[in-house]
Design goal:
This protein is an alpha/beta fold. The protein folds into 2 domains: 2-92 and 219-234, Rossmann fold (3-Layer(aba) Sandwich), CATH 3.40.50; 96-211, Rossmann fold. It is built from 9 helices and 8 strands. Strands 2-1-3-4 form a 4-stranded parallel sheet, sandwiched between helices. A 4-stranded parallel sheet has the order 6-5-7-8, sandwiched between helices. Strand 1, helix 1 (10-22) and strand 2 form a beta-alpha-beta unit. Helix 2 crosses helix 3 (69-82). The radius of gyration is 19 Å and the shape is elongated. Mean pLDDT is 90; it is low at 117-121 and 236-241.
Length: 241
């Protein structure tokens, strides 16, 4: 069961479709947490009614790249409300696939070289990247692993920042400028529904940075949803390789 922040939109539906096509044996359902936690509770009750007694009703996979207290609180409250056996999966990140997806999104926006090896000697469009999260300071700390991976891919300084807490995008921009980076880009480490797109654009404009698109329904997101499901089912962490 995909638990989506806010009221969703086209991206969660696209992710659900990809996961369903790639894994037709799974019953993939989508719940918008912004519609109230009751809709999640009702869906869990419906799932439980179709499962053998004593078996988990579902594995809930939050559609977030990192820690997000508000999302996880809503899920836990819904599970408590319906009192059915449920497993709640970890966030999709950090994972090398998400660093790769951030690279793709930056290159699609003209903010990074598409081929980090073959075009190594061509000047990069920017000289500093801000990886922007939501979910507060915990999400910023959790993004550090992705920051390291992206920096290695691009051979550029990369700093994590929060769109809803401190350290913010302005703090990250100042850190980058202090080490000589003047042409900045903002890479939303988000799937999309977590925050209004206008807030992302405004944050980038405030520091004079180019802005990539959120991860959206990138194949890496769908792949990690399936890995998260499998990990929760077996108790084994997804292979970071």
């Amino acid at each position: 069961m995909l638990a989506v922040p806010g009221t969703g939109g086209d991206v969660p539906t696209a992710v659900k479709t990809i996961v369903g096509v790639d894994h037709p044996q799974l019953d993939v359902r989508l719940v918008q947490l912004g519609d109230s936690k009751s809709s999640l509770a009702e869906t869990l009750v419906d799932c439980a009614a179709k499962r053998p007694e004593g078996m988990p009703a579902a594995i809930v996979v939050p559609l977030v790249t990192g820690p997000h207290q508000q999302v996880y609180r809503a899920i836990r409250e819904a599970v408590a409300e319906c009192d059915v056996i449920t497993t709640i999966a970890d966030p999709l990140g950090p994972h090398p696939l998400l660093a790769e997806a951030l690279h793709v999104k930056l290159s699609e926006s003209g903010l990074a070289r598409a081929d980090r090896m073959r075009l190594f000697n061509i000047a990069a469009p920017v000289d500093g990247i801000i990886v922007a999260t939501v979910g507060g300071q915990e999400a910023v700390r959790a993004a550090d692993a992705t920051v390291v991976l992206l920096a290695a891919r691009l051979t550029l300084p990369v700093v994590a920042a929060s769109l809803d807490a401190s350290p913010g995008v302005g703090d990250a921009a100042q850190r980058l400028r202090n080490i000589g980076a003047s042409r900045l880009a903002l890479a939303p480490f988000l799937i999309g529904p977590e925050i209004d797109q206008a807030k992302i654009t405004k944050a980038a404009e405030a520091v004079g940075a180019g802005c990539a698109e959120p991860l959206g329904a990138h194949s890496a997101v769908a792949q990690l949803v399936a890995l998260s499901y499998g990990s929760s089912l077996t108790g084994v962490d997804p292979d970071p390789q």
